[in-house]
Amino acid sequence: MVFSRINNIELFEKQITATLPEGAVGYYKQFLKPKPESEIKAWFDKQVYLALGVFLSACAEMKIDSTPMEGIEPEKYDEILGQKDYSELVAVAIGYRDGEDFNQINKTPKSRNPIAQVITSI
Questions:
Q1: pLDDT score for 101
Q2: CATH number, domain 2-118, options 2.40.50.320, 3.40.109.10, 3.30.450.180, 3.20.20.20
Q3: Contact at 8 Å (CB) between 94 and 64?
Q4: Nearest CA to 37 among 16, 15, 14, 12?
Q5: Considering just the CA atoms, what is the radius of gyration of the chain in Å?
Q6: Where do the DSSP E strands lie in 61-121?
């Protein structure tokens, strides 16, 4: 899965006017629209991460493993997907685990450093 943020503010405004209740549109117009474009897009980013959190929780509830991946090359994803009005922010690999994978906790237990080595009290 690839999660994208809208880049085209004019398109966003058309979409919300056509689909959201007046109160939500009013909130945008009053509190967000007056801000600089960079702040509006930063807000768009945060909305994507809210959706990502819901997606990851839904995967866990359905017993589907998921791994979010930042550090992707958004421009290349944009090019591959033919995106012009959106920018990719994060990708998520999803699937069911292989019971034979040696990384399974029942095959290779996790190891942890002693708490005194990790935490220092001051």
A1: 85
A2: 3.40.109.10
A3: yes
A4: 12
A5: 20
A6: 65-69, 86-95
pTM: 0.77
Per residue in 12-29, pLDDT tens? 999 999 999 999 999 999
Residue identified by tokens 């017993």 is 63
> Hey, what are 23's tokens?
């109160």
CB 55 within 8 A of CB 64: no
What pLDDT score was predicted for residue 62? 96
pLDDT for res 14: 96
Give 31: exposed, middle or buried? Use CB within 10 Å, 0-12, 13-18, 19+: exposed
